[in-house]
UniProtKB/TrEMBL annotation:
Subunit structure: Homodimer.
Transmembrane segments: none
Function comment: Binds and transfers iron-sulfur (Fe-S) clusters to target apoproteins. Can hydrolyze ATP.
Family from the record: Belongs to the Mrp/NBP35 ATP-binding proteins family.
Name of the protein described by the UniProt record: Iron-sulfur cluster carrier protein
């Protein structure tokens, strides 16, 4: 390359690229540039490369442009923040009202109690319940860098729910794509510290579930069912949806499993007993345990003081569930 041609090409470069130029060679119509890309984000690198190509394309001596971006290795090896490998646990069911949200809250609280860093996403856009269950009603998340910052709860579990973004009681009439967009925003919040994200899914197998499966690929799914046959058939459908999406089903939790009489403590089985365990066997998945139908669980849920944060056999049932889930995650 004549130095004249080289100097001419250098003057054609945009200032930002010229400042980073390490070398420029022109040989048989091919211009080869090496640029120092230290500290540039992927998008900025691409933009710089494109601007270089455009600047040199007009020169008569240049038939082809090759741009090599070199990053300083020591800088590249030290990212600003160690990335947390975040694992999503989806809590779903085929049928509504079986206690997904209650199980999701208490699972998250029990995991946090056992020392895990957990966040909770309320993916039920149409009927959000996590603000109530975690006692964070009335709190509004702020946005930072265009992403939502989760709301802190008293139980060591930060949370994002549409309930924090809309007024209580206000009907939410999102269309499918908008609802999926809303779920995406909740999941893409600043969850930086959370190693586990528990996601409370809406009932059924609609758009939101699909977005979850396709876009965020949960590490595993927990299926909640009541013991009666109808709920179990729906649970099987939910399990099939996860399996189709390539999301492993961790197992089935039987909720409202035995009624504990608040007066005499006697246990009865209004919805039958043991059905979910049998269904888990049929589905070839694990049975993760029973949570009894206990009026205290409902009351504590409504009061925003999750059962898993307290003491007693019900708190222990959620703690046992959390241990199973944590063990499953650790074994992956
Ligand atoms: N084990 C339990 N004992 C007593 N009440 C319970 C239990 N589990 C859930 N509930 C109550 O049952 C109702 C439904 O529970 P929850 O909202 O968790 O169900 P869900 O499956 O999330 O419902 P949806 O499909 O509407 O989202 C709530 O009032 C809750 O407090
Ligand atoms: Mg719910």
């Amino acid at each position: 390359m004549t130095s004249d041609a080289g100097d001419r090409l250098k003057t054609l470069l945009p200032e930002s690229a010229a400042a980073r130029l390490q070398s420029l060679r022109l040989s048989e119509g091919r211009a080869t540039l090496v640029l120092d890309a230290t500290g540039l984000a992927a998008g900025d690198r691409e933009a710089m490369e494109a601007s270089v190509r455009q600047a040199l394309a007009g020169d008569e001596a240049v038939a082809e442009v090759r741009v090599a971006m070199m990053a300083d290795k020591s800088a590249a090896a030290a990212p600003e923040k160690p990335a947390v490998v975040q694992k999503i646990i989806a809590v779903g069911s085929g049928k509504g009202g079986v206690g997904k949200s209650t199980v999701a809250t208490n699972l998250a609280v029990a995991l946090a109690r056992s020392g895990r860093k957990v966040g909770l996403v309320d993916a039920d856009i149409y009927g959000p319940s996590q603000a109530r269950l975690l006692g964070t009603e009335g709190q509004k998340p702020v946005a930072h860098d265009n992403r939502l910052v989760p709301v802190a709860s008293q139980w060591g579990v930060p949370v994002l729910s549409m309930a924090h973004l809309s007024d209580p009681g206000q009907a939410i009439a999102w269309r499918g794509p908008m609802a999926s967009g809303a779920v995406t925003q909740l999941l893409e919040g600043h969850w930086d510290d959370a190693e586990i994200l528990v996601v409370d899914l809406p009932p059924g197998t609609g758009d939101i579930q699909l977005t979850m499966l396709q876009k965020f690929k949960p590490a595993g799914a927990v299926i909640v069912s009541t013991p009666q046959d109808l709920a179990l058939m729906d649970a099987t459908r939910a399990a099939e949806l996860f399996a189709k999406g390539g999301v492993p089903v961790i197992g089935v939790v039987e909720n409202m499993a035995g009624y504990i009489c608040p007066h005499c403590g006697e246990v009865s089985d209004p919805f039958g007993a043991g059905g979910a365990e049998a269904a888990a066997r049929t589905m070839d998945t694990a049975f993760l345990g029973r949570i009894p139908l206990d009026i205290a669980i409902r009351r504590e849920g409504d009061a925003g003081t999750p059962t898993a944060a307290g003491e007693g056999p019900q708190a222990e049932a959620f703690a046992a569930l959390a241990r199973s889930i944590a063990d499953w995650l650790d074994s992956r």
